[in-house]
Amino acid sequence: MAQEIDIKLLRRYSHLELISRQVVEGFITGLHKSPFHGFSVEFAEHRIYNQGESTRHIDWKLFARSDKLFVKKYEEETNLRCRIVMDTSSSMLYPVNQEASFENPNKLVFSVYAAAAIIQMLKKQRDAFGLSVFNEQIEFNSPAKSSNVHQKYVFGELEKILSIKADDNKKKTAAIDTLHQIAEQINRRSLVVIFSDMFDDISRKDDLFDALQHLRHNKHEVILFHVLDKKSEIDFEFQNRPYRFIDLESNLELKLHPNEVKKLYVKAMKEYYEELKIKCGQFQIDYVEADINKGFHQILMPYFIKRKKML
Amino acid sequence: MALEFTDSNFEELVLKSDKPVLVDFWAEWCGPCRQVGPLVEELSKEYEGKAVIGKVDVEANSEISVQFGIRNIPTILFFKGGELVDKQVGYAPKATLAAKIDALL
User: What's the ipTM?
Assistant: First the structure.
């Protein structure tokens, strides 16, 4: 059976800690400062009035001028649209642990819970949220809505992700193509939240940066949560004995003595991450290092700060 | 400059065109149409020679509007080889429209 997202655990975050913290800092009052209220926000089209329909949204001014009955139609009433983009490639299943859970997550489980917490907060604010899931291709793509039904639907998808195991089919990361596609698909200004370990083909890193830049067009705001297990992936802290390293995306095996490669590895990773950070800075993308061992505060706070800026 | 399609020239200019065609159904009194209008003008310059881009005033040309069942304005229809291939109802940003034309080129 698919593992379920434990709403109680989320609430612990969304209610107690964060809300109380925000109230103290006057966060919540700030969140409602939007100058837009209710309808009139995004008047998108006129539609011929059908007999029997409510007269409430008839454009009476137009009727007065021209005797025509048209109804004004609006885009869904919302302050913000948020698209959560989740990488579910096999490398996200690191550290390999069959019993990955909220308390002891791998990168994927961590991302799912972080995304669920953000969705929970968006829902409270009546903001619209959509989910895109990708690995080698876009696996799932939902529109952005803010209803309860939509939340259940999206949570259902997230729960499916929780049940992915390391032994399942290996899925590579194709962040470049998929990010381009996603950038094309979002047509209204949105907040784009990406969860990925960014382990794409390192020789194509310029293309990856292009894809990130593409997301910034149309004035989207982008937060990149770079999900990683800092201890082993960046600092390469392993015991001083031979290890067998297995690439989760291709199953390639490598027998190594960590101390021999540590220096080289740490240097290469550091360079890549530094470059990623610099590029994100240039594109005005918020880069957030999300270490799976450090809990969820590191995710939610940057999100709130960004959210506040967008109003 | 975007073309003006009418009941009389629609078949000639749109259905018999060998290029992709974008048709914007609009009316003078409709707010969102006036938002879309300038985008269509810009697109007509950018795609000059590659695609045919024009507008239909639904007030003056009820025949085509009825033929294509236009009940909402703005509605933007995309034709290729005389066939209706895509449709956008309501306001959409320029990039969305451009992407739809690009898909037909």
Answer: 0.72
